[in-house]
Amino acid sequence: MAKCCHHEAPKTGFSQRFRMALWIALILNASLFLIEVIGGMQSGSSALWADALDFAGDSFNYILSLIALGMSLYWRATAALVKGIMMLSFAAAIVIKVIWSYSNGQPPEVMTMGIIGGLALAANIVSALVLYAFKEGDSNMRSVWLCSRNDAIGNVAVLGAALGVFGTQSVLPDLIVAAIMAGLGWSGGVQIIKGALAERQQAKHHSHAHS
């Protein structure tokens, strides 16, 4: 999930093929983020909103990977800090949505959930296949491939929630999946913020030591 994606800057020798693979993954993830946000609003599914959090986190990481070569440690850490804060904000919004949906008690629209969940799963499979060639590369290359592979689990969970809603005609399967995914997103955001703050301090100390 989102917390697996706080990876290091690419090392020298960052290949053109890997850059192209990252662009493909970025376009897929950013597109699915928008689709899931809109789909979550249309269907009333909290699980889709929660999965959109994951796509947002991944999109930000692919952007960081693409530009990290030209950034110092301090600014990479600052960018990661912004991402962590965004993830916490989105996770909090999902929790509020879960509480509202529970009080409302209206099950989400299953067909929309299923279609968008299937599209999201296909997008992550394509991302994983595109990045598969780099799974034995440096830590950055390995981490972005593992992210796409692991994110497919979240998409399967959304499809499971859709089946659960269809079978029970209850909002609970959707809310349970959303709550779990929001919790993972919150945990990932906290970890990223802690790491980013530590890296900013490290960069400051390194700068002072060489000044």
Structure, explained:
The protein has 211 residues and is an all-alpha fold. It has one domain. Helices cover 82% and strands 0% of the residues. The protein is built from six helices and no strands. It has helices at residues 16-43, 46-67, 73-104, 110-131, 139-168, 172-209. The chain starts with 15 loop residues before the first helix and ends with a helix. The relative contact order is 0.20. Mean pLDDT is 80; it is low at 6-14. Its main location: membrane.
Task: Please provide a brief summary of the model.
With 211 residues, this protein is mainly α.
Defining key terms:
transport; mainly alpha; CDF/SLC30A; 211 residues; 6 helices
Helix content: over 70%
Query: What is the rounded distance between the termini?
Result: 40 Å
Low-confidence stretches: 6-14
Fraction in beta strands: under 5%
Count of extended strands:
0
Subunit arrangement of the protein: single chain
Number of helices: 6
Structural class of the helix and strand makeup? Answer: mainly alpha
Specify the biggest β-sheet.
none
Average residue-wise pLDDT: 80
Order of helices and strands: HHHHHH
What is the CA-based Rg, rounded?
A: 18 Å
**What form results from the Cα inertia axes?**
globular
The domain tally reads 1
Keywords: Ion transport, Membrane, Transmembrane, Transmembrane helix, Transport, Zinc, Zinc transport
Transmembrane segments: 20-39, 59-77, 84-102, 114-132, 152-169, 175-197
Main location: membrane
Protein name: Co/Zn/Cd efflux system component
